[in-house]
Amino acid sequence: MEIWINTACTKCSSALFLLDLEGQEYTVRRYLNDPPSAAELEDVLSRLALEPWDIVRTDEPVAARLGLGSWERSAATRGRWIQALAFHPILIQRPIITADDGTAVVARTREAVRSVLPSTS
After folding, report:
1. Is 2-115 a CATH 3.40.30.10 domain?
2. What SUPFAM superfamilies does its record include (predicted)?
């Protein structure tokens, strides 16, 4: 299991706390220092079953500078969105957990974090 975090994010801290509480083994990826490539983003988006615009932090100043609010959200512009995320990782919603079973989740709630934990039954 890997978790993409921003160390200044309280949602990330909460997700890490819950993983520790549940005794989970995981790898931390500080994605601002180690940005995902476009191919990695494609993989994570596939695992999340989301589009790139679904994981964009539109309140970030760089989103306004890029004019993301006016970008078309379509198959034709999908690559442009992915490149924006790769070049400006601050735009990526966090935390994202990629589980060993191939699933992934934007883990902003306790329920989302728990959804990727192995079942104990």
Report:
1. yes
2. Thioredoxin-like (SSF52833)
